[in-house]
Amino acid sequence: MCGLAGFLTFSQQFSKDDLRKMSGCIAHRGPDSEGFFYNTTCGLGHRRLSILDLSEAANQPFFSANGRYVMVYNGEVYNYQEIAAKLNVPLKTTSDTEVILEAFAKWGPQFVHELNGMFAIAIYDQEKDELFLFRDRMGIKPVFFYQDRTGFAFASELKALTKIKYLQGRLSLNKEAISQFLYVGYIARPNTIYNEIRKMDSGCYLVVNKQGMRSEVYWRLEDQVKPELITDFKTAKEQLKDLVLSSVKYRMISDVPFGTFLSGGIDSSVVTAAAQFNSAKPVKTFTIDFKEAKHSEARHAREVARYLGTEHYEFMVTQKEVVEWAGQIPDIYDEPYSDSSAIPTLLVSEMARRHVTMTLSGDGGDESFMGYSMYTWADRLENPFLKTFRRPIGTLLAKLGNRYERASFLFNYPDESKKRSNTFSQEQYMFTEAEIAHLLTPDFRQAPSIRELWDVKARKLSVMEQQAFFDLKQYLQDDLLVKIDRASMRHSLETRVPLLDYRIVSFALNLSPELKRHKGVSKYLLKEVLYDFVPQEYFNRPKWGFNIPLANWLKTDLRFLIEENLNEKVVKRFGIVKYEVVAELQKQFFGGRDFLFNRIWLLIILHKWLLQNEGNFSGSNPG
């Protein structure tokens, strides 16, 4: 796991000094070594967090044996030993880095089909002055880029691109990105908060040369859907169990100490159980707890750890620690990002890094195996009666008070084409499309654009499958994986996600919905695999998630964030949202409409980011 940055320029608008500044601001991603390649046309920078082959011989940039190619790389390829056997070439290191580059040298860009892992790979062809940039199938490792007619620059984090001298004064706020953020809490690729910088898509590679840039897709979720569903329980369970054990075993390959994040929920427990099954000694497990949390899973994590025999570490978090990290969210995530579970993720990563350099996480289980309540809502909203009378039902619910008023927004989606994004938005307590239109000032008013449907041709997906597919394509990649990458790498901690092995994702896409949600039981098949390792009674409780009591804290210890970021002077200074609407929202929240807490949080994060980054963009309203 590392950080990378670089550029290809044919008019020298980027410099060696830019490269050093880009690398310097992502030093947290790789504190073990720093390396550069520069030849006036191409610059490559690398920050290394040593996981495999800890020797200096595996440092980057790395040159191919024939001397033609030079590479910087972020991530891990778990099946590198099998690829090395196919290459049949002498190797001078025991790292996956060398195997990846020699595979490219031998097979060309199609080598990417051989890789099982998480990766962002940049390879420069010195003979052709051509740059190749690869991103993994599920978008686990990030890539941001800038492109114009004479240059191309890229980095693992957005902040690195803002350090380029040529781009300073050229960046402007992306209005579509702002409306997306208010609607779903994150900015969906290819957008970033800046019009001029984009996020690279997953499952593709870019080829950049003097003629420009082209993008090639090598893997799509849509193409993994098959005509026939897997319906036999026994067969499906055996296949999934084998896949989970294989995936976890791959991700345990490491030359440094590792552990697992263990919340006590299904996903982290199945990953931990598989890791302990594959390990000859106790696996280190990490969990955190909140003194003020209404629903704590720390006790359950402790019980699972005790049953599995892991070496368990637990950290009690106070509001003081939360306050310290809450203010750093805009700097860590580089653009408006509202997922408040980033705070506990930062805290558990900080704790884990005291003991290990690599961790396993359970991310991906909910999206692949239908773990969210929004899938029930998606199915419910398809009921012909509810579809016909949804607007009067929504009006009635809005009059019944707090809890029912929140539910009313689920019925008031604009039209069928926006049902999935509205269901997600309102399950997360974000702004509706209508509220955004009322909130934004005329200069920034733009409807949120979130892609909801894809060309899945093999078979028609059920409404729950469509909602889950939306989450796999959008929420998982642009929110959850962003959260875990930035939070763990802030502490120089590598985090691997076994349930997002592309083999498991492909399997789950073709699993019968009846084996995902069975008689009201969510993640049914994944739970059945888990129960082979840990008895079912350890999990007979509601799902609470990895959250902080944000609604309560915004009225107490975190109230200062409202006062600092949502006062009249700050809101009018940027002129993006109407102050009178923001003031009314605060009044309603403090008056008892607690479900508005996430809308308040969105506005806090937006304005805190604006205050911290206004030197990077043009077009703010001085007020």
Automatic annotation (TrEMBL):
Pathway: Amino-acid biosynthesis; L-asparagine biosynthesis; L-asparagine from L-aspartate (L-Gln route): step 1/1. It comes from the Bacteria. L-glutamine binds at D96. Pfam families: Asn_synthase, GATase_7. SUPFAM superfamilies: Adenine nucleotide alpha hydrolases-like, N-terminal nucleophile aminohydrolases (Ntn hydrolases). The active site is at C2. Keywords: Amino-acid biosynthesis, Asparagine biosynthesis, ATP-binding, Glutamine amidotransferase, Ligase, Nucleotide-binding. Residues 2-211 form the Glutamine amidotransferase type-2 domain. GO terms for biological process: asparagine biosynthetic process. InterPro entries: Asn_synth_AEB, Asn_synthase, ASN_synthetase/amidase, AsnB_N, GATase_2_dom, Ntn_hydrolases_N, Rossmann-like_a/b/a_fold. The record marks D363 as: Important for beta-aspartyl-AMP intermediate formation. ATP binds at I288, S361, G362. GO terms for molecular function: asparagine synthase (glutamine-hydrolyzing) activity; ATP binding. Belongs to the asparagine synthetase family. This is asparagine synthase (glutamine-hydrolyzing). It comes from Adhaeribacter soli.
